[in-house]
Amino acid sequence: MKLQVLLSAMFLEDDSYVDSLNITGDAVVINQCDRDKKDTHTRISAVGNDQRITYIETRERGLSRSRNMAKAAADADVCILCDNDVEYLPDYEIRIKEGFSKHPDADLIVFYIKRKEKPVPNYPRPRRMGYLSVLKIFSPEIAFKRESVKDIMFDERFGAGSGRYLMGEENIFLYECLKRGLKIYYEPVMIASLREEESTWFKGYDKDFFISRGANYAAMSEGFSLILILQFALRKRGIYKGDGLDFAEAISCMLKGRREFLKERK
Fold first, then answer.
1. Which parts of the chain are beta strand (E)?
2. What is the pLDDT of residues 81-113, one digit of tens each?
3. CATH of 3-194, one of 3.90.550.10, 3.20.20.80, 3.20.20.410, 3.30.43.10
4. Domains of the chain by residue range
């Protein structure tokens, strides 16, 4: 079983950046910068093994576009998404491959990345995931069989740098996988930790955030989007109040985002 890490980053000097993330196996690196170039070569990793890197420099922008470019350039059996603030454990490849050996029918497996707001896994034991459980997922936790998702793309209207909606591209992607009958498992095995760095897109629970969240829910499921909007407003009420929005304003902004997205889609 071949594994590739699909790293989305911006303005890197060169592919040696993978060493700082403890990526020791093969990888596809999408470097959104001011150049256009593609190269595949073998280098020596930080731990001394041969490492095949497909390094793509592009002037295109947007996280979802970067994910799609990485998927298209990949050729491994299994791929895992990666951002530039992830630090892998030394045996991350073994853990990911063991997960797919344990669940041979899995099309996607969500692993655990430790971070400040998530000190323990979402679930203590392995389980199948459905439409509600995938709402809690963080992009770099997602590993997939490349052939299973080759025709499923990240919606480029969503995600950091899209110029439209700030977030939610991973949830839309996972919903589309479920709609097509793919099997998603949760495996509470830690593969990495997250660096404490300032988010490139999250500036607080402001109106733009809630507009994007409403559009995100509409893209996932028009029929269930109203329920998703209501549950989010209720569940996060104690958090976003500190940023100056009340319950009614949060609902109003999410409904606005929902309307905008559905109007665009038509």
1. 3-10, 27-32, 37-44, 50-58, 78-82, 86-88, 108-114, 127-128, 142-145, 184-194
2. 999 999 999 999 999 999 999 999 999 999 999
3. 3.90.550.10
4. 3-194, 207-265
